[in-house]
Amino acid sequence: MSRRQPVSLPSRMLREVRKVEAEAREAGNAQDAGTGYTIIKLQRHQPPLRTLLEAGKIGPDELAAADQIAQAASAVAMGGILRAAGLERVDFGRQDERDWPA
Q1: Whole-angstrom Cα distance, residue 93 to residue 91?
Q2: What DSSP character marks residue 96?
Q3: Domain locations along the chain
C-alpha cells in the first residue's frame, strides 16, 4: 500500500511545457513557435477582441463598432501629434528688415 506522493508545482509546469513543445513539433509548422513557456503565455494572453470573438460573445456588429472606435481614437491621437508639431515660419536671415549694408 504505497501512497502516491503529491506532484509539486514546478514538475507539473515542466510536464505541461514539454507537452506543449511536443504538440508544436508534431504540428510541423514551418515557423518556430518558441519555447514551451512562450507558447503557453501566448495561448493564455490573447487580445480581448479575439478572445470574445472566438467565444462567440460578440457578433459582426460589435466587431465593426470596435473597429470604428479604434479608428476614431487613432485619428484623435494623430490630430494631437500634428498640432504639437508647431509649424512656425523660421527666419534664418537677418534680425531686422534693414537693407544691407547699412
Answers
A1: 5
A2: S
A3: 8-45, 47-86
Nearest residue to 63 (alpha-carbon basis) of 33, 92, 54, 102: 54
3-state secondary structure of 77: helix
What are the pLDDT tens digits along the chain (102 aa)? 567 777 676 888 888 888 988 888 888 765 677 788 888 888 787 788 888 888 899 998 998 999 999 998 888 887 766 565 555 555 566 566 666 555
Rounded Cα gap, residues 70 and 78, in angstroms: 12
The CA-to-CA distance between both ends of the chain, in Å, stands at 112
d(CA 41, CA 46) in angstroms, rounded, equals: 9
What sign results for the dihedral spanned by CA atoms 10, 14, 19, 21? positive
Q: Which residues neighbour 42 within 8 Å (Cβ) at sequence distance 6 or greater? A: 34
How many Å apart are CA 32 and CA 41, to the nearest integer? Answer: 15
